[in-house]
Amino acid sequence: MSSRENILAAVKANQFSQADLPGLEVLNTLTATNDDLVEKYKTIGSAGGSFVYEVAGYEAIQNILHKEFKPGVKIISGIKELSEYTYVADVKNELSHSFADVELCILWSGLGVAENGALWLTEEDMTVRVLPFIAQHLAVVISKTNLVPTMAQAYEKIGGATYGYGAFISGPSKTADIEQSLVIGAHGPRSLSVFILP
Amino acid sequence: MSSTATKDHPQLAAIFNRDEPRVDWHDETLWWVRAKRDIAAHKLPEWELLRETASQIKNNVLSNLSTYLEQFEANAINNGIIVHWAANAEEHNKIIYTLLEKRGISRMVKSKSMLTEECHLNEYLLKQGIDVIDSDLGERIVQLAGEPPSHIVLPCIHKKKEEIGDIFHEHLGSAKGESDPKILTETARQHLREVFLTRRAALTGVNFAIAETGEFVICTNEGNADMGAHLAEIHIASMGIEKIIPERKHLGVFLRLLTRSATGQPITTYSSHFSKPQDGKEIHVVIVDNGRSIQLGREDFRNSLKCIRCGACMNTCPVYRKSGGHSYHTAVAGPIGSILAPNLDMEKYADLPFASTLCGSCSNVCPVKIDIHDQLYKWRQVIVKAGYTPKAKTLAMKGMAFTLSSPMIYRAAGKMGRFTFKYAPFAVNNGANPWYKHREMPKAPEQSFGEWYAKRKENKK
Questions:
Q1: Does B4 score more than 60 pLDDT?
Q2: How far is B373 from B318, CA to CA, in rounded Å?
Q3: Do B273 and A165 touch (CB under 8 A)?
Q4: H or E element that contains B271
Q5: A154: Cβ contacts below 8 Å, ≥ 6 apart
Q6: DSSP label at residue B306
Q7: From the CB of residue B459, how many other CB atoms can be counted at a distance below 10 Å?
Q8: A84-93, B229-238, B380-389, range with the lowest pLDDT
């Protein structure tokens, strides 16, 4: 017998009688609050090391980015409205390694979570999987109507969607492995800017 | 760890305890992490319901594990993932080596995986001439130091920043005497970025594998799993059979519990869901048993397979905090590791279930409600019955049984004890008595309870 058959047979022989799955409804209703999700997101996101901006539109985003990033640095954007930057679909077929010198990557997220500041991005939003990790800085744009209270509602919203890859990103890359001192900028982006549109 | 293989927990703890200020520092640091866990947990009014729900989901998983494993496999294959099965550590290591060898790959970047520590994958691959670099900062530090991790979430929690500075100076060329965590982290960032960009193979662990969708989830704060996996042409993920959860929506329960229990964060920076390989690339999943199916059959211990590896039981354990992770001489240290290890080798790890005060703090913080301290107590009974207790302990137990077997002997022993305490305290207050370590011995009473009771009865007459 192969290891597969052996393992499955051993597991089958040793698993105990049926235990039912609990329902999640009670838990999910409990956490569906009417709190101001933008306020909550701002508080939690900032505590997690993100820069959170509530903005009126794309022009405001552009102005902030102009202040933060010098002209001439490599910026890739997944957002059509921010048209002065290299559009991600145009570089889709380049080797992932060629993005090693990207200074800023700007992407769209269709789902944000107030309880932990996490933003859900799928491969479709990223176009290139490594982009939000390899860029020195990351910016994510989200509409406030796409914020939900907790992970419970987040997975209700994701439902049975298919994707090749998806990630909840809740802040800049960080580590506290050296004597528990929090250091921002481990292997991924050194900063995360979140722009919340109306 | 061959040097520690012959030593047991008390001996190894004694080595760690030589440096008292370091023990205090280790104790305080971990308690600080535990306190952060409390703050995070208390912020959620539904915390207890979350724990209960998670525990019930895992109950369902364990009762249907074979079905879920087959379901996960079928869906993963459907997604284009290649699935392998490994009965034990040796087979796991061999599968990975074969995957690399076939492609002529001799260098791999690895993200944190306690399963590969359990299988001693790094040592195995090194022998085959494969260079493995750990990319989690804490793991990289212990790897450069030539040590195993001492904690599953905080691998180098036992190291001071000055020591890390010395290691980086020697191996990564940072300035001599540099110990600023910010500068050292930047040094590691530059060094590992080069590694990520040049490795054709990446290995990661698996935090959760979802039967319903055939995807798996990896949680990191550094983003190292993603940097490795997305840049390599082949991504190998090692998972224990117990990592399965039934449906995607159950992640909404586990991701809320994991980091709050681990470090007090509301979620890791990255919770990455791998469902299909990138165009032109490969994802392989190695599903590993290595004793887990046996543990599933041990009714008293099967709950230990619910563990989601948050490390909360270690952070809160008074014994772990004061003896250090290496004293457990196993990949997963602390209370939960002391339940898992004897399943693999009861003789070698017979000491571990005794490395606990049974205070129950571990069970109180466990996000999936594993009855950790009860299981440790049960292991002690199994180990004693199987005859694996240390000689000194066996002798002491026999002496105790003899003394307690007759009221006359018991009374005589009590008298002797009180006499010794009173007239020859040096006979008990010395290094030969393990109870005297770090402890003042109590003053013995003038009379025993029995004597006092008899006298009182006499006086009342």
A1: no
A2: 13
A3: yes
A4: strand B270-274
A5: A111, A113, A118, A120, A148, A168, B252
A6: G
A7: 7
A8: B380-389
CB of A154 within 8 Å of a chain B CB? The answer is yes
Query: Token digits for B227?
Result: 């940097």
For chain B, the average pLDDT equals 94
Beta-carbon contacts of B288 under 8 Å, excluding residues fewer than 6 positions away, are B86, B88, B89, B92, B115, B119, B238, B239, B240, B241
Q: Classify the C-alpha dihedral B331-B332-B335-B336 as positive or negative.
A: negative
Identify the weakest region by mean pLDDT among B92-106, B191-205, B339-353, B425-439.
B425-439
A–B: how many Cβ contacts below 8 A? 245
- Are B136 and A177 within 8 A, CB to CB? yes
Contact A15 B266 (CB under 8 A): no
12-41 of A, contacting B, C-beta below 8 A: 12-22, 24, 26-28, 30-31
Q: Which residues of B touch A129 (CB under 8 A)?
A: 226, 230, 278
Core vs surface per residue A81-115: b (16+ CB within 10 A) or e:
ebeebeebeeeeeeebeebbebebbbbbbbbbbbb
Q: Which residues of B100-115 are buried (b: 16+ CB within 10 A; e: fewer)?
A: beeeebeebbbbbbbb
The pLDDT tens digits of the residues spanning B138-179 come to: 999 999 999 999 999 999 999 999 999 999 999 999 999 999
Q: Do B49 and A30 touch (CB under 8 A)?
A: yes
- Amino acid, single-letter form, for residue A172: P
What is this structure's pTM?
0.94
pLDDT in tens, A56-106: 999 999 999 999 999 899 999 999 999 999 999 999 999 999 999 999 999
**Average pLDDT over every residue of B208-214:** 98
